[in-house]
User: Fold this.
Amino acid sequence: MSLAESLHVLERQILPLLKTAKTVPELAAESKLPEVSVVRALQWLEKKKLVATETTTDTHFDVTERGKQGLPEKAVLALVLQRPQAIKDLAQIQGGQAAIGVLRQQNLVIVKDGSVEATAEASKATFPEESLLKKMPCLPSKDDKGLAQSLQRRGLIAETTKKTVKAFITDAGKNLVQKGIASVVDQLTPTMLQDGSWKGKNFRRYDLTSIAPRLHGGKLQPYKKFLDSVRKQFIALGFEEMDGPVVESDFWDMDALYMPQFHSARDIHEGYYVKNAPPADVEEGVMKRVKEAHEKGVEGSSGWQYDFDVNHAKRQLLRTQGTACSARMLANPNLKIPGKYFAISRCFRYDVIDSTHLPDFNQVEGIVVDKNLTLRHMIGLLKQFAKIFAHTDEVKVVPGYFPFTEPSVELFAKHPELGWIELGGAGVCRPGVVQPLVQKDVQVLAWGIGVDRLGMFNLGIKDIRNLFSKDLAYLRKAKV
Assistant:
């Protein structure tokens, strides 16, 4: 393929101008092209070894807008030489407060009773910094380096770096120009196809060996895409989606789940309570039944035998567990029996951030409501979840503890690199949860899965923080 026939129109314009070495601004002025187009053409030509470039860096100091107003200490001294000045008045001058300190160090002023007075030496004062300011822009000599650093710290001068790119034509480029750069057509248009004017034209050839910029098409954030797929899979399994507020009451987050207000189990949640929030609005009938279950129990249970604090239950916090959505659903008059429900809930708990823990996380949780349900139904459902969502057959279900279920279990799955990871917990809801909310003789299987960790399985990542990464380089490469 002829190299000359593959040159872009920008390359064909710039290459003949390089009879002598020229800078980008010079080439832009001569070609009447924007500098960005000149830079792009030089990059392409350099990759084809037709041009070589050389970059030089020039560093110097220049006066800032503040420095153009002159030395603050000179302005302060000029006023003080006329008559003593109050410190508060001199402080109104930009940099005046610091200038008083500089003048005191040089024994040019004294400060007494909130007033600044000139000394005998003040009238003879000279300011070498002023002469350096007048030399700007420049690169200070070794003798002036200390003065320059002082002026820079005070914001009177600033370091400026300028890069200059100069382009040279190579021997290969000269030979190409001497032979003559072919006149080619860059684009085949619909009009040319219609009227046949394309015939006999010399079209620019495509150089398939050149490096083209990578194009990054739009796509959903990888973890958001995964959550959408989880939602679709639960719906396909016959579950209905439920929801609840992120700012939740203590009542739905813990009390309705039969967690006593004094119990240490609440400590593991370490919730973020909302400061100065008004008491939550809870339906009086539900509150009364839950209060009675805590104090006296249900179905032969003696309850927790303490005085349930209604005001405590109305405190508001950031939801610590998705099970609050389940509690709301169980108390909903539209609850279906039998019924299967799930939610993808954003939850918040204080935690130490590492590769597997975050203080805010997503939780997939749900309930199955029907008569005659047992723990065996729950275990079978959990194993099915692990296979569908974690894509692994290596799972184990072990005994666990949750205040609102009995019996309770925990689900573990084996990650190929991180080993065994806890995916979630489940169990059969206690009568103390079901009776006050549902008011019917049914069983409720409750489960919660750490969907963030499921995301790690499916997206092939080791660090849970990458699920919420803002790094564009990572997101462009991330699996969807």
Summary: The mean pLDDT is 86. The domain at 224-477 is CATH 3.30.930.10 (BirA Bifunctional Protein; domain 2). The chain has three domains: 4-57+162-195, 67-159, 224-477.
